[in-house]
Design goal:
alpha/beta, Rossmann fold, UDP-N-acetylmuramoyl-L-alanine:D-glutamate ligase, eleven-stranded mixed β-sheet, 16 helices, 38% helix, metal-binding, CARKD
Length: 505
């Protein structure tokens, strides 16, 4: 339940249902209390520092006023900037306002230039944001974003679209919070596109609503529990054939780096044997990774091998022919990069993909996704969930729409937002490594869905492990990912799998 994500429309319905049988203002009071508790936690031993509370014109502002009243009751110096303008505020926000006025909350009309705040509480806008933030509110957002203290956003960082993770524009701004407490249910926009840069650490507060009352979520947040059942410790009595063959098909002239990076990703993610079936003549072996078996793509037998097709493949007639052969075969397929572009340009190849029975996973970045759907990248990024859903539907394949908060989508509409990873992945070749990792999991018998979930999670966690060890995010290289992915995978196996070896004597 706690990984469920809901749209604004669903949350409005949940709130309406929750209010039946509850006295007016109950949810707002609970939201304010929960926000105050979290704020006190964030203040820690700095409760002597003043807290700035920004209250907007709607019920998000009401939550903020409630929180300010509670903080003042706890002895904190809470100062509210509340400028509802000409708006008629709701009754529940009005009673929250009265409670704040009745206590020791201080009210100001403008931000002091040099406030030394211990914490800022952002209660300007929540799920009711309807247009870009401008005017006085924009000045408040800019001022908060220039402060160095922690910022606790209530429900949604003001200015962010709770469904898509976009900063509401054009030309809008959004609060960059260090923490967000979000009410009734988590929201996809906090975890994809600009969401992770603005929401910071997200805590879900159900406000006393029974999770069983909640509708089916629009998506879920990813986690190792979604693929953990496929992780198994290795038996001593095994051999490289036990772990499958991966063949990377790509490497046109001058583009051999991509398939080699994919191959290293596959090797470090546990594939038994890894081939690189090159379109170009290429070297006889990879001196850095001599375990890889380099072959010519023409004449290479795909039978019994998991194919990772596309890295550095180009768009030649040979590339088309190899892709058609791969699509028509019964190998598990990971389709990336140029292979996605070729499918996007060919209804016939798309039909052959959609008609496959064997596992198929695509790993488009937004531009490749745009080509696949015949749209622009900005349309894809404006609603990543919808775009990923459409790609999976049209291709009848599992899709990983890459980016901050990659979306993993299945043809039946199931979707997961991957929670791992960081800006270190924004480097040449990191997508090739992801393709290789996914190919290795497919080669080890993982179904397409779990292979995609696992590869996205492990790939991101590898980047997080590197940052934890002081490598990156600036300057992280794709070549550093395979070994880190191997470490992550083995940690997961140690944590979640039951020893599959013989019972210990
Ligand atoms: N639904 C829940 O789960 C709960 C909601 N609570 C809290 O309430 C907010 C939602 O409150 P709401 O009043 O619907 O909307 P907001 O407070 O987010 O927005 C305030 C109003 O501001 C106007 N608006 C929108 N965009 C802008 C803008 N860019 N500039 C200025 N004003 C703007 C808009 O009214 P207009 O008529 O002017 O369009 C909004 O209505 C939710 O996020 C929770 O924090 C409950 O307290 C807990 C459960
Ligand atoms: K907010």
């Amino acid at each position: 339940m706690d990984n469920h994500l809901y749209t604004v429309a669903q949350l409005r319905a949940i709130e309406t249902a929750a209010y039946t049988g509850l006295p007016a203002g109950t949810l707002m009071r609970r939201a304010g209390e929960a926000a105050a508790r979290y704020a006190l936690e964030l203040l820690g031993d700095r409760r002597d520092k003043p807290v700035l509370v920004l209250a907007g014109p709607g019920n998000n502002g009401g939550d903020a006023l409630e929180a300010a009243a509670r903080l003042a009751d706890a002895g904190v110096d809470a100062t509210v900037l509340f400028q509802p303008g000409q708006r008629e505020i709701s009754e529940e926000a009005q009673s929250a306002h009265e409670r704040a006025r009745a206590g020791t909350v201080g009210f100001i009309d403008m931000l002091p230039p040099d406030g030394d705040w211990g914490l800022v509480v952002d209660g300007l806008f929540g799920i009711g944001l309807a247009r870009p933030i401008e005017g006085d509110y924009r000045e408040m957002v800019d001022a908060v974003n220039a402060m160095r203290c922690p910022v606790l956003a209530l429900d949604v960082p003001s200015g962010l679209d709770a469904d898509t993770g976009a900063v509401v524009g054009p030309g809008g701004v959004a609060v960059r919070a260090s923490h967000t407490i979000t009410f009734l249910g988590d929201k996809p926009g906090l975890h994809t596109l600009d969401g992770r840069d603005h929401a910071g650490q997200v805590r879900v507060e159900m406000l006393g609503v029974d999770p069983a009352q909640l509708p089916a979520p629009v998506a879920r947040r990813g986690g190792a529990e979604l693929f953990g059942h496929l992780l198994a410790a290795r038996r001593h009595n095994s051999h490289k054939g036990s772990y499958g063959d991966v063949a990377i098909v790509g490497g046109a002239h001058g583009m051999l780096g991509a398939p080699l990076l994919a191959a290293r990703g596959a090797l470090h993610a546990g594939a038994g044997r890894v081939f690189v079936a090159m379109l170009d003549a290429g070297p006889g072996y990879d001196s850095v990774q001599p375990e890889l078996m380099l072959r010519q793509a023409d004449g290479f037998d795909f039978t019994g091998r998991t194919l990772v097709i596309g890295p550095g493949m180009g768009d030649s007639a040979t590339a088309m022919r190899l892709l058609a052969r791969a699509l028509d075969g019964d190998s598990p397929l990971l389709i990336d990069a140029d292979a996605i572009n070729l499918i996007g340009a060919s209804p016939d190849l798309l039909a052959r993909l959609a008609g496959r029975a064997a596992p198929s996973v695509l790993t488009p970045h937004p531009l490749e996704g745009a080509r696949l759907l015949g749209m622009t990248t900005s349309v894809i990024q404006a609603d990543r969930l919808e775009a990923a859903r459409e790609m999976a539907l049209r291709t009848r394949a599992t899709v990983i729409l890459k980016g901050s908060g990659s979306i993993v989508a299945r043809p039946d509409g199931e979707m997961v937002i991957n929670p791992t990873g960081n800006a270190g992945l924004a480097t040449a070749g990191s997508g090739d490594v992801l393709a290789g990792i996914c190919g290795a999991l497919l080669a080890q018998g993982w179904p397409a869905w779990e292979a995609a979930l696992g590869a996205a999670w492990i790939h991101g966690a590898a980047a997080d492990l590197l940052v934890a060890h002081g490598i990156g995010p600036i300057g992280m290289t794709a070549g550093e990912l395979p070994a880190a992915a191997r470490a992550v995978l083995n940690l997961l196996v140690a944590e979640v799998s039951t020893p599959s070896g013989p019972p210990r004597s």
